[in-house]
Amino acid sequence: MLRRLYDWVIDLSERPSATWALAGVSFAESSFFPVPPDIMLVPMCVARPERAWWYAFVCTIASVLGGLLGYAIGALLYDSVGLFLIQLYGYGEKVDAFTAAYNQYGHWIILLKGLTPIPFKVVTITSGFAHYSLFWFIVLSIITRGLRFFLVAGLLYWIGPSARDFIEKRLGLVTAIFAALVIGGFVAALYLA
């Protein structure tokens, strides 16, 4: 099953709709969807390294736009949708501490958590709930998400075909490491918030 999913994403990267699918996942991940765009970004960059920079750009813009939706959920709909999403991911008790931290460390919270596997949607929704400066939220989101996605794309671009060989020969190991990072991100967000 894992091989079929990987092959599907590799095949998808050849289609005109690939960029739109990547943008959709990046947008949704920043506001409500639990799966990070790396699940598509990595195989797409491996399949078409010459487009890696474009894919990173698309991920960045879509992620920031999705972050604005998350911000709006936190600012306008926190009592209904925002609280539901925060509790769904198990961070309900941590929101007050997280919001208080914005008063002192808001810039650093966005920059650091945007680079890590910690779910960015938690940052976006809480930023809106805390009424963090929308201007600084956008600027810092562009920096942190851009850095994250361009780092992944750059790594895969420079490693080139050997990255594809490594991933294809060790797909189970790569998937396990990726899953551990995502789960670790959720756990870290739970304890660090």
UniProtKB/TrEMBL annotation:
The entry's protein name is DedA family protein
Keywords (A to Z) from UniProt: Membrane, Transmembrane, Transmembrane helix
Which residue windows are transmembrane per the record? 53-78, 134-159, 171-192
Q: In the UniProt record, does the keyword Protein biosynthesis occur?
A: no
Organism of this sequence: Ancylobacter crimeensis
Reply yes or no: does the keyword Nucleotidyltransferase apply: no
The cross-references to InterPro entries, in alphabetical order and at most eight, read: DedA_domain (IPR051311), VTT_dom (IPR032816)
Superkingdom: Bacteria
Domain VTT: from-to ranges: 52-155
